[in-house]
Design brief:
7 helices; globular; Maltoporin, Chain A; mainly beta; about 725 residues; single chain; 5-stranded mixed beta sheet
Length: about 725
């Protein structure tokens, strides 16, 4: 990576940072912003019948985030859960979950193929290469396909600048984290380019066994063939390795004993994504593009969450696993947009083909559990150690060829003045040809479904509007769930291996109304959404006493809530007040857990879903004093309400409220900044979970103590 940054230092003519340019030109009022993600084309907020938010380049630049969750959590209705070292789960119109109900896009193209969801996909993102982030809340499967259910996050990359530009920075905190980053670009004749790289390193942190290293490089080249035709190349390369310290028990959490129970668990990722897009404007009313792409991803881990231990069955023994999930993708997507004068009609249509061969294996680890003192059945583990690596005992071992094909279309028109009607449909077909080496079975599974949406926008006055929509969501089970050996079968159990071949796709029906307001010449902005979403066959992970997971996908769930966000500028735009949050409820309506009449737990009917806070929000006050130009400071409040730790609703975690402070000053291209995360040094956990039995121990994903981060960045420009 040192060579990468040295090469960036000599890119063309040294120039000013892209984010400095956008600081002056980007509107911060998201309600006046043009969105791309909700309709696959540039569309104003008043013509978008969904709940959508945009995080601008200005916000991204001022946040100076170590990890993506610090930026994305500024979106109302979104709680991105930090699992350490940029690992994460998500909560958008769903509980905090790792299930495949979110779609992560990079410039409109999915980071993963359908069927190979990974909840940690955003750890591969280069934060120094972001122009903006668009977040759509609720299902958009009719445009983007399976997994676009709870929410869709589209990370939009920086484009080549007209003038040569360059920026370089370093940042670090007192817990051993440091990052170096550089980006630059220019346009010469018909060719524009932009290159951005980061290298992050964590050593000797506040929690034992928590080191990680991440390197990312993004390269974009634009060739303007003529004034109507463009050829765009994007390439992303990333390498990541992290110790996986996992969670701590209740006593260790409250004593602030941040000691990992392992020194052997890890996660590593090698990712390459490249794409080539040809865009053509036929005339003012018609445009088309076609993109061909390739993905190559290798993900290996010895996961801390995969350790299975029971305090009552065999308290000094445990099991773990090592697994590897690798895939390549070869695909193409084409789209055409056509406008007509009749009723101001616009039609968007497209098709996708994706071929992704996948290999996956997982084998058993035999572990010794060294216990802390405690009464029988109440002990906790001090540390685990590996007794044997059982490469001969496979928990999963399969290859699969995934063929994803889809076609979609969307229509919008104005039947009367101030009323916009939008309707869309998509058909997805996911075919999986598999070879399961454990039971020597081969076969084909097909998941296909048409999905629809319909919405209206009514804008009676220039400064306010309302909308309503109905949308469907669709999410087939991830293939890693299908070919996982069921607990108590296979391996050393003496019973034939059983698998989850009968898992059903999850389907959702979403109903929502919302509105927006922009008043006082854009100084006051407010938007809201009220939604009601019904789910069927959601994938439910039933946590067993030994911490192993059993899967169910039969039943019904209900998700309902209110999301709101507002922004108010005053004192001649020196003071900005932003508020946002959601009040939600997520409930099992009809969910059978067991068919065995001897089991105590038969169903979860009427229970609240675990890890589902009824309240979460993020608000901020920012100050830009006129008497100190280029100075900024802000105070942020992150709030998460209480929620049940277990599926049977016996114990809650109280949630947390924390405050973060940020400040920065730029002088002649030199920017110095500092962030204080968790100002009050509050003891809190990002997530707390517990099994359904009385002997289950709660586990805490501990958050960092008060953290001071400082940074220095150089932005320089050579204007033509």
């Amino acid at each position: 990576m040192k060579k990468i940054f040295l090469s960036l230092l000599v890119i063309g003519q040294i120039a000013c940072a892209q984010d400095q340019k956008t600081k002056d030109t980007t509107k911060t009022e998201e309600l006046e912003t043009v969105f791309i993600t909700a309709n696959r084309t540039a569309t104003q907020r008043k013509a978008t019948p969904v709940a959508i938010s945009k995080i601008t380049a200005k916000t991204i630049n001022e946040t100076k985030a170590v990890a993506a969750y610090e930026i994305i959590n500024k979106t109302p209705g979104v709680l991105m859960v930090n699992l350490g070292n940029e690992q994460h789960s998500m909560s958008i119109r769903q509980p905090m979950t790792t299930n495949a109900y979110y779609l992560y896009l990079e410039d409109g193209l999915s980071i993963r193929p359908m069927g190979v969801f990974n909840h940690n996909a955003l750890l591969e993102i280069n934060q120094f290469n972001l122009q903006s982030i668009e977040v759509v809340k609720g299902p958009v499967s009719s445009l983007y396909g399976p997994e676009a259910v709870g929410g869709t996050i589209n990370l939009i990359s920086l484009k080549p600048s007209i003038n040569p530009e360059f920026k370089f920075g370093i940042q670090a905190d007192q817990w051993g984290y440091k990052r170096i980053q550089a980006a630059g670009g220019a346009t010469v004749g018909k060719v524009g380019f932009h290159i951005a790289g980061i290298s992050s390193l964590q050593e000797n942190g506040w929690m034992t066994y928590s080191n990680y290293k991440k390197d990312n490089l993004n390269i974009r080249i634009d060739y303007n063939i003529n004034d109507k035709t463009r050829l765009i190349s994007n390439t992303m390369w990333g390498k990541y390795y992290s110790d996986m310290n996992g969670s701590v028990n209740e006593a260790a959490f409250y004593n602030r004993t941040y000691k990992s129970t392992t020194d052997f668990t890890y996660r590593k990722s090698d990712a390459l994504r490249t794409r080539l897009t040809l865009e053509h404007d036929w005339n003012e009313d018609a445009s088309s593009y076609i993109t061909v792409y390739h993905r190559d991803n290798k993900l290996g881990q010895n996961p801390s969450y995969g350790i299975r231990w029971s305090p009552t069955i065999k308290p000094t023994t445990a099991k773990g696993e090592v697994n590897s999930n690798n895939f390549k993708s070869y695909g193409a997507i084409g789209q055409h947009t056509q406008k007509f004068d009749f009723l101001n009609t616009k039609i968007v249509g497209g098709a996708l083909y994706d071929y992704s061969p996948v290999t996956y294996w997982s084998y058993l680890l035999e572990l010794k559990a060294n216990l802390n003192p405690g009464a029988p059945g109440k002990q906790t583990v001090d540390y685990y150690e590996i007794l044997a690596e059982r490469l001969d005992v496979k928990l999963a071992n399969y290859t699969a060829d995934i063929f994803n094909t889809a076609g979609y279309a969307q229509l919008s028109f104005n039947p009367i003045e101030k009323l916009i009607v939008t309707a869309g449909a998509r058909y997805d077909n996911m075919k999986v040809d598999y070879n399961n080496a454990i039971d020597n079975s081969t076969g084909t599974k097909i998941y296909d479904k048409p999905t629809f949406k319909a919405g209206v926008n009514y804008n009676p006055v220039q400064f306010a509007g309302v909308y309503g929509n109905y949308s469907q969501g669709f999410a087939p089970p991830g293939i890693t769930s299908i070919f996982r050996t069921k607990p108590g079968t296979g391996g050393t159990t003496g019973k034939p291996a059983e698998f989850y071949y009968n898992l059903e796709p999850a389907t959702f029906n979403n109903y929502e109304i919302g509105g927006w307001l922009s008043h006082l010449e854009g100084k006051l902005n407010f938007d809201y959404a009220v939604y009601y979403m019904e789910g069927k066959n959601e994938l439910l992970s039933v946590r067993l006493p030994d911490n192993s997971t059993d899967y169910r996908s039969v039943g019904e769930t209900r998700h309902k809530g209110v999301e709101f966000g507002g922004n108010y500028k005053l004192l001649s735009n020196q003071l900005n007040i932003r508020l946002g949050g959601t009040v939600a409820e997520h409930t099992f309506i009809d969910f059978k857990v067991s068919d065995n009449p001897m089991d105590v737990l038969q169903n979860l009917d009427g229970k609240e879903m675990p890890a589902a806070p009824r309240w979460s929000g993020n608000s901020e006050i920012s100050y830009y004093p006129n008497w100190i130009p280029q100075f900024r400071t802000s105070l942020e409040w992150q709030s998460v309400g209480n929620y049940y730790q277990d599926q049977i609703n016996t114990v809650k975690y109280a949630g947390y409220d924390i405050f973060n402070f940020r400040a920065g000053y730029e002088w002649k291209g030199i920017e110095i900044y500092g962030n204080i995360i968790n100002i009050t040094d509050k003891l809190y956990a990002y997530n707390v979970s517990k099994g359904n039995t009385a002997s289950s121990q709660a586990t805490y994903t501990a958050a960092a103590p008060r953290t001071f981060m400082i940074g220095l960045q150089y932005n320089f420009s050579l204007k033509k």
